[in-house]
Amino acid sequence: MANVQIIEATDVTPELVAAFERLIPQLSSSNPAPTETELAAICESEASVLLIAVDRDADDRILGSLTLAWFRIPTGVRAWIEDVVVDETARGHGVGELLNRGALDRARELGAKTVDLTSRPSREAANRLYQRIGFVERNTNVYRFSLEMGDDPQTPPKSS
After folding, report:
1. Closest by alpha carbon to 21, among 87, 68, 84?
2. Is there a contact between 62 and 54 (Cβ–Cβ < 8 Å)?
3. SS3 63
4. Number of domains within the chain
5. Alpha-carbon distance 59 to 101, whole Å?
6. Percent of the residues in the chain that have a pLDDT greater than 90, as a whole number
7. N or C: lower Cβ tally within 10 Å for the chain?
8. Is the CB of residue 99 less than 8 Å from the CB of residue 86?
């Protein structure tokens, strides 16, 4: 992949929508690809940027993407990298590294003190990449509460 460029997606084109229809199933089997409206919301947000890797030698084919989100908290500006995905045909050629380095550069420009991400242990190549770039595993717990599920049966009832 000699001529891959990382760019910010600012317009939702049919090519962008089609790329996400191809990429998201490679990232998650339980989430559908974003709609044109959902992609537009990401592109127009003042708190996130959608970075895409395009192959300049292949008619700007989109090879991968990630979303960088940032926010201010009392201790400074923080950033998160989310939904990193590289097309299976482009894996192992440095596309993921280019995307992540692009996100780190952008976070630096925004004044972020840290950039966090999560990665399932089963994504061994991705975890090796993050460590090689300089991400350090944190000794912390990550918790998730699903608002889509309503009341969580695992949660004890509220006392009156």
Report:
1. 87
2. yes
3. strand
4. 1
5. 23
6. 85
7. C
8. yes
Closest CA to 65 of 105, 22, 32, 31: 22
Residue from 53, 46, 57 nearest 7 by CA: 53
Instruction: List the one residue out of 157, 158, 116 whose CA is nearest residue 136.
Output: 116
- The answer as to whether 155 is a domain residue is no
Edge-to-edge strand list for the sheet holding 48-55: 4-8, 48-55, 61-73, 76-86, 112-116
Residue 156 included in any domain: no
84-120: pLDDT as tens digits: 999 999 999 999 999 999 999 999 999 999 999 999 9
Structure tokens at 17: 């929508």
**40 is a domain residue:** yes
154 in a structural domain: no
Length of the chain: 160
